[in-house]
Every structure is written in C-alpha cells, then in structure tokens.
Amino acid sequence: MDRKKITPPNIHIVSSEYQIPVIDKLLGRTTLKWQCDDGHCEQLTASLRFTDYEGNAPSFYSLTKLPYVAKTYFQAKRSPIMPNPVPFLVMDAIRYLGEMVKPDMKVMELGGGNSSLWFLSKGAKLTTYEHDIHWAQMVYDTVDKNPSKYNQDKFDLRVMKGASTLNDMIKQDDASYDIILIDSMNEFTRRNDCIRIAMKKIKPGGWLVLDNSDNPVNWKGAELLEGKDMIRFTGFGPMAFFVCQTTFWKM
Ligand SMILES: C[S@@+](CC[C@H](N)C(=O)[O-])C[C@H]1O[C@@H](n2cnc3c(N)ncnc32)[C@H](O)[C@@H]1O
User: Fold this and answer.
1) Ligand 1: distance of its center to the CA of 214 in Å?
2) Which of 121, 159, 185 to probe ligand 1 with, by most ligand atoms within 8 A of CB?
3) Which backbone phi and psi does 191 adopt, to 5 degrees?
4) What is the residue range of 233's domain?
5) Looking at residue 56, which CATH number applies to its domain?
6) N or C, which end of the chain has less CB nearby within 10 Å?
C-alpha cells in the first residue's frame, strides 16, 4: 500500500469499527474513518489478524512466536502485569530492542506498562510518561515490591498527559537520550506531537521507536522522520492476536 495515496488524519478524531458484526471481529477486519483538514473524509480497512493496516504480512519470526503470543494472551487475562514483562511491541521489535538496550542507557518512554518493567530489568535509566494514575501506580508498586529485579532509583515515573507531557519533554536536555519509545495513547498524548519533540532529545546515533507505525493516526509524525535510516517490523506482539507494526529510526 502506498501511504501517499491516503491523506492521514491531522488533529481530527479517528473512529474505529467492525462493519459486519461477528465476522469482522473474527477476522480483525477493522475500518478506520477520519476527516482531513480540508474537510474530505478518508477510510482504511484492514484484516488485522492477517496483515497490518498497510497490508504487510506478519514476519516469519513472529509466526514462530504464536505459542508465546497465546501464553501471554492468557496471562494477560489473569493479570495486566506479566510474570516476565516484555514491551507490547511486534515480537521482532522486542528482539531488536533487547539487543540494543544496555545497562545505564538513558531511555524515555511515552506510555508505560510491562515495557517499563522490561527496560528496568535491563538496567536502563528510565523516564516514563504515563497518563493513567491507576496504571502508573500498579507499575510503580511492582517495581517497589521487587527490588532485586527492578532498581527504583533508575525509574523516573511522571504521571501527566497532553500539553503537560509535551512541556515537560521540552525541558529535558537536547540530545540526551539513547532511546525514546513512543507508545502513548493518542487520546491523551498524541504520538505525532511526541515525535516532534523526541527527535531533538535523542543523541546522534540513538533510536526513536514508534509502535503502531502502520496506523494512519501516527503517519504525520512518521513523515517528520523521512530520510533517516529506518528499520520496520510487522508481526504479532505479545498478549494479542493482531498484526501490528513497530518502526525504528536512527537519529
Ligand atoms: C500502548 S499502551 C503502552 C504500553 C507499554 N509501552 C508497554 O509496552 O507495555 C498505552 C497505554 O495503555 C495503558 N496500558 C498499557 N498496558 C496496559 C495493560 N496491560 N492493561 C491496561 N492498560 C494498559 C497505559 O495507560 C499505557 O500508557
């Protein structure tokens, strides 16, 4: 699919629906609809059990990980914090990121969760922006109760959303982070806005990671990164039987 043929949403709300009940849900056939700045409407339909929004098939590696996807799917039904936490990214992206993260690397993430625990378990110095105080508390309590696994001193958890998050990000030193993962909920802190600021905060040679980069809602931000070295993964991630896309850009 050629992104240039579709005008992505700018600041407008994107609706997501299953048009044929039951069947679409089974196939994960999801229709996104939005209005563009000039008033015209666009829509995009994809069967997310089989491809990402851009029609890319899942990687072979992520297919081999389907038993793990199933295991974590059932674990997530029991508890949202996984027994062995991993980021909610495409399986190939978890592997790639896992090779990249080293102790004491400076990492920022927008949208916390199992990823926060995973970064901390690798010894990263982590700044997490999370909009939901209850979810943040759950993550923080897990860190607090497991000092042998997670070093609380390396965890800077900031509960804020929208403009507060963006203003706080701006105050961080330029070119000071090794990795920034953008995985926030767009309803609370738009990923496109985060990308614009994050680009300045990453060291030369560092990485910006965007999850759900196939979703048109995040394309405007991705456009800002055009021309940079990029690695893109499509496949299944833990905890859900949907195909998704995670992209890495080198700064
Ligand atoms: C895409 S998720 C971020 C996931 C996180 N970066 C990770 O990989 O674990 C966006 C938001 O959903 C919420 N969230 C994340 N994981 C959750 C879970 N397992 N259950 C409930 N809410 C979750 C948090 O508010 C988070 O900021």
Assistant:
1) 18
2) 185
3) -65, -35
4) 50-250
5) 3.40.50.150
6) N
